[in-house]
Amino acid sequence: MLGPVGIEAVLDQLKIKAMKMGFEFNIMVVGQSGLGKSTMVNTLFKSKVWKSNPPGLGVPTPQTLQLHSVTHVIEEKGVKLKLTVTDTPGFGDQINNDKWEDHPEDAAERDGAPRAQHTSEGRVHLPPQLGPHPGLHQRAVRAVPAGGDPHHPPAPHPRHPRALLCVLRTTHWALDRIPFAVVGADREHLVDGRCVLGRKTKWGIIEVENMAHCEFPLLRDLLIRSHLQDLKDITHNVHYENYRVIRLNESHL
Ligand code: GDP
Ligand code: MG
């Protein structure tokens, strides 16, 4: 039988294998038409996580007429993450929303706290919130409305937050800083010789990745990087448990 050192070595191998295979993470954005959802999805995919291979820079955002999913495989510190972001037409728009799938588990989750999911299907891992969720107002992620000032965004109406993302964990450090003032931008601009994603206003260029300008980097880290850490932890725990059970069974044969 393997001693503790042997177990650690096998566990590390399993972990490395799982990391190489990668993870899947699905996000869906919902909200009124014109909030900036599609722009925010594009910003997420064009921001520096994807710098090595920015998809379709400079393409203007058309109005979203149906559910539209974009998938990219990103790699962060050697871990592959298949990220699918589903953009949706605005609720209340006279547009076909037929493709909404309702899973019984999602309905259950809507009634309770949203839970992180790791599945190989296309299920949305942040379940859609079809309306203001009790207790989530403090955790609302707010987009700066078109023409708004990122430093002084208007307070959301308590019953109608302009944009709502349910977040995975209540313990994450960034949650203390919610609501984030985020700016979405499809365009790149030249600033001091650097190419930056930003929104040109009459006061200057608001750079989406500049924390002095807006909190988009916090939102991205919360959605992607911290989730990746959760997935790493889950892998470690699950594989360790599985391995332990197998070894215990074998040792009793
Ligand atoms: P959607 O209907 O929610 O998908 O909204 P869009 O992404 O199509 O954006 C609607 C309009 O708002 C477009 O003209 C965008 O350029 C603009 N917009 C998007 N994000 C921002 C933002 O952060 N700030 C400002 N000022 N305008 C934005
Ligand atoms: Mg749209």
Description of the molecule:
With 253 residues, the protein is α/β, with parallel strands linked by helices. The chain has helices at 4-21, 37-46, 104-111, 216-251, and strands at 23-29, 68-76, 79-87, 142-143, 181-182, 188-191, 194-201, 204-207. The longest helix has 36 residues, at 216-251. Strand 7 (194-201) and strand 8 form a beta hairpin. It is 28% helix and 18% strand. The structure holds guanosine-5'-diphosphate and magnesium ion. Magnesium ion (MG) binds at residues 37-38, 63-64, 87. Magnesium ion binds at residues 37-38, 63-64, 87. Residues 21-98, 177-250 form the Septin-type G domain. This is Septin-12 isoform X4. Belongs to the TRAFAC class TrmE-Era-EngA-EngB-Septin-like GTPase superfamily. Septin GTPase family. Residues 125-136 have a biased composition (Low complexity).
Query: Low-confidence parts lasting 5 or more residues at pLDDT below 50?
Result: 50-58, 94-121, 126-150, 152-171
Shape: elongated
Strand content: 15-25%
What is the rounded Rg? 21 Å
Mean pLDDT: 65
For the biggest sheet, the summary is: 3 strands, mixed
Query: What is the helix/strand order?
Result: HEHEEHEEEEEH
- Attached small molecules: guanosine-5'-diphosphate, magnesium ion
Name the structural class.
Answer: alpha/beta
Distance between the termini: 12 Å
Number of H- or I-type helical stretches: 4
The helix content, as a percent range, equals: 25-40%
Q: What order do the strands of the largest sheet run in, or round the barrel if closed?
A: 1-3-2
Work out the number of β strands.
Answer: 8
